[in-house]
Design a protein that fits this description.
This protein has ten helices and no strands. The chain is mainly alpha-helical and 227 residues long. The protein has one domain.
Length: 227
């Protein structure tokens, strides 16, 4: 039995159980809500003068984020990969193109963010990591390294979800904690993505452990079959 034939645990599983199914559903619903919210920026100029001044790169950034949010969750469905591999591949190409668009425009927006250097760096690092992790996912699948590709897709989509966490955290800081906007914006420029990235790495470590356990159980079966 080849190593690739051994069972492999999914780091970002689709709805295979009640808990994972509920988490996937919540993730998908939040992604859809935030993507639909992004449409408001294409229906007119935002009320914020700063965003209105940079409306073109902002719209490119939002368009990329919307596409990535809408396509991303479906990439983690094992049944979809198994039953419609070509659709999975084309959806993945669309997703990574949207990530490229959103991250490049996001880097432009980071350089003009309203709270100064802390947000320039916070959102700028997010944009660079978002692009770089998407590029790694693409390069690895081109090499045929499916497992490594999935790891980089997990990291990348965790950063895509910064669009969701930002719109949860910022209103909380403003309405509940009563922080001034500049303070909240500086904090959220880091908190919208750093915890996501850490959680992704924790999940990947758990996957590595689970895969090692599955392979250790499969090896004795393989030896018996060969004997």
């Amino acid at each position: 039995m080849a190593q690739s034939d051994l069972p492999v645990a999914n780091v970002f599983p689709g709805p295979r159980s009640r808990i994972s199914g509920a988490l996937w559903s919540v993730m998908t619903l939040l992604s859809l809500v935030i993507a639909l919210y992004g449409l408001t920026y294409f229906l007119g100029l935002p009320g914020d003068d700063h965003f209105a001044r940079y409306i073109q790169p902002l719209r490119f950034h939002i368009a990329g984020g919307m596409g990535a949010l809408l396509a991303g969750p479906w990439q983690f469905l094992p049944k979809l990969r198994a039953r419609a591999l070509n659709f999975h591949r084309w959806l993945g190409r669309f997703y990574l193109l949207e990530v490229a668009l959103g991250s490049i425009a996001g880097l432009v927006m980071a350089t003009v963010s309203s709270a100064g250097w802390p947000t320039h760096v916070g959102f700028g690092v997010l944009a660079v990591l978002w692009f770089a992790s998407g590029l790694q996912a693409y390069l690895q699948i081109r090499k045929g390294n499916v497992a490594v590709h999935r790891q980089w897709m997990t990291r990348n989509f965790a950063l895509t979800l910064a669009a969701v966490t930002l719109r949860i955290e910022l209103p909380f800081m403003l309405a509940v904690l009563h922080w001034p906007f500049s303070r909240a914006y500086i904090m959220v420029s880091w908190l919208c993505w750093v915890p996501n990235a850490i959680l992704a790495e924790v999940m990947l470590r758990q996957q590595t452990t689970a895969n090692a356990q599955l392979r250790s159980k499969a090896r004795p079966v393989t030896r018996c079959a060969r004997g």
